[in-house]
Amino acid sequence: MSGVEILMIVAIVMQVVAVIISLRLIHETKYSALWISCIITLIALCSERTMQLMSFDGYNISDYTYAWIGIVVSLGISLSVVCARLLVNHVERMSHHRRLLENRLLTAVLRTEERSRSSFSRELHDGLGPLLSSAKMSLSSLSKSELNDKERATLQNTVAVIDEAIRSLREISNNLSPHVLNSFGLARGIKNFVDRTAALHDVKIEFTTPLRDQRFDSNIEVIIYRVICELINNSLKHSSCTTINISLTLNNGRIAVVYSDNGCGFSYKESLNSGMGLSNMKSRISSLGGSLRFNSKPGSGMSAHFEVSENGNMPQPAKHKQRRTKRLQRYGKKN
């Protein structure tokens, strides 16, 4: 047996094995047309190799037979390519719908979280706040009574503790649901948080924006506000920075935020699981159809940049946009 015959036998065996695998895949997957066309092609190739092997033993195979086998092989390959293209389109559509579903679920979770924060903040502000204020007024009325020095000192200390509790309550309530953000918009809300934070830390925070009273969807404002607050808190906790720069702009319907600090920097891969909330921030921006990019390495500070549509729409792939446009055009012609 010559080397060519051995190679043909090996090719036949491999093709038979491929046919068996394809037969199993027909039952295990729903893409039957693709596997059937592959089986037809493999059987035709296997037959061609068998005939070529028989020709070594003196069998005369006509050229007409080889031509028909070639046609069957070409047809099977063409069908396989078409089915593969349809399969790729199906996978793209499924991936697109999955991403939309994930974004909708994430958006629903974030909105539920914000509603819970707002409700809790309102309960604290409208419920516990007046009680503390009433207690302070009741204690203040005692200051008019005749008290010795020890009792007066105790009263003053108690009033001071209640004042601190009221301030802490307002701070907690504002962190849960920022009233300036809800009342005056994104730029004012960020400015208010920056001013309060800078007053409590020895860090210079520069916030620049041409926006003034522009309002956006409440979901967009809350998410951008939360992400910027998280970035600032991360810089204060982990970077040992002395300067933070934040830029908020609106260009061509896109809200852009550029953030940077001059701290110690970090390794992005190591920080994903370090509790810095990077994944949470990226998920929040992703729910608006944007993407958050970090640029940092140890010892050289960090920068972050993200853009979202002012409408918060998830951008669709070009193919899906074209299909949707064609459907709308057909609908318009019918009506």
In sequence order, what are the helices and strands, one letter per element?
A: HHHHHHEHEEHHEEH
**What's the architecture of the largest domain in CATH terms?**
2-Layer Sandwich
Query: Largest sheet, described in full?
Result: 5 strands, mixed
Number of separate domains: 2
* CATH C-level label of the largest domain: Alpha Beta
* Average pLDDT figure: 79
SS class: alpha+beta
CATH superfamily of the largest domain: Histidine kinase-like ATPase, C-terminal domain
What is the name of the CATH topology of the largest domain? Heat Shock Protein 90
Strand content: 5-15%
Number of DSSP strands?
5
Helical percent range? 55-70%
- Shape descriptor reads elongated
Separation of the first and last Cα atoms = 74 Å
- Tell me the strand order in the biggest sheet: 1-2-3-5-4
Q: What characteristics describe this protein?
A:
5 strands, 335 residues, 69% helix, 10 helices, alpha+beta, single chain, Heat Shock Protein 90, disordered C terminus
Describe this structure as you would to a colleague.
The protein has about 325 residues and is of the alpha+beta class. The chain has two domains: about 5-105; about 180-335, Histidine kinase-like ATPase, C-terminal domain (Heat Shock Protein 90). It has ten helices and five strands. The chain has helices spanning about 5-30, 30-55, 65-140, 150-175, 180-185, 185-200, 220-240, 270, 280-285, 320-335, and strands spanning about 205-210, 245-250, 255-260, 290-295, 300-310. The protein has a five-stranded mixed sheet. β4 and β5 form a beta hairpin. The chain is elongated and about 130 Å long. The termini are far apart. The model is unreliable at about 315-320 and about 330-335 (pLDDT under 50).
